[in-house]
Each structure stands twice: as C-alpha cells, then as structure tokens.
Amino acid sequence: AMEKAPGGSKWERALELFEEMKKRGVQPNVGTFNALIRAMGKAEGGSEWRRAVDLFEEMKDAGVEPDTYAYTALISVLGGAP
Question: What DSSP letter does each residue of 13-68 carry, written as one string?
C-alpha cells in the first residue's frame, strides 16, 4: 500500500499533477498515462479501478496509442478491484 502524503495519497497527487500538466498545455504521453493507471492500482483496496479505466479511455481519445505496458497496467489494476 502507498503511504499517505500530506494532503492526500500519492495517487491523488499524481492526478493533481496530471491535471496541472494539461492546464499548462503539456501533452501527456504513453508513459504518463501508464504511470497514472498503475498509480490507480495503489489506491486502498483497489478502489480507483474505474478511474484507471477512465484514464485508459482518455489516453485513446487523446490519440495516444496504448502499449503493452498500458494494457498490463490496466489488467493489473482490474485484478485488484473489489
């Protein structure tokens, strides 16, 4: 399990940084999405699996081609879902 960071968990902070990137016009790449999807799997009890699926869909909608790691990360997150 991920340890708590001030003001929330690390996966929550990762999402905040992701949103900040997009606001500043930085286009996320496949590595960014992979890290975020994997981070959703670190949420307590696998509670953020839906968000991982949403991120996967957002990646495809943004024209970023999922790679093998993206599919593996998503499968891993879904495997830990309640």
Answer: HHHHHHHHHHHTTPPP-HHHHHHHHHHHTTSGGGTTHHHHHHHHHHHHHTTPPP-H
Average pLDDT over residues 28-49: 91
Task: Give the tens place of pLDDT for each residue, 3-19.
Answer: 344 445 888 999 999 99
CA distance 19 to 44: 21
Say yes or no to pLDDT of 71 above 90.
Answer: yes
Position 20: which residue type? Answer: E
Q: Could you count the other beta carbons within 10 Å of the beta carbon of residue 15?
A: 18
Task: Say which DSSP state 6 is in.
Answer: T
- The SS3 of residue 7 is coil
Q: What is the pLDDT of residue 44?
A: 84
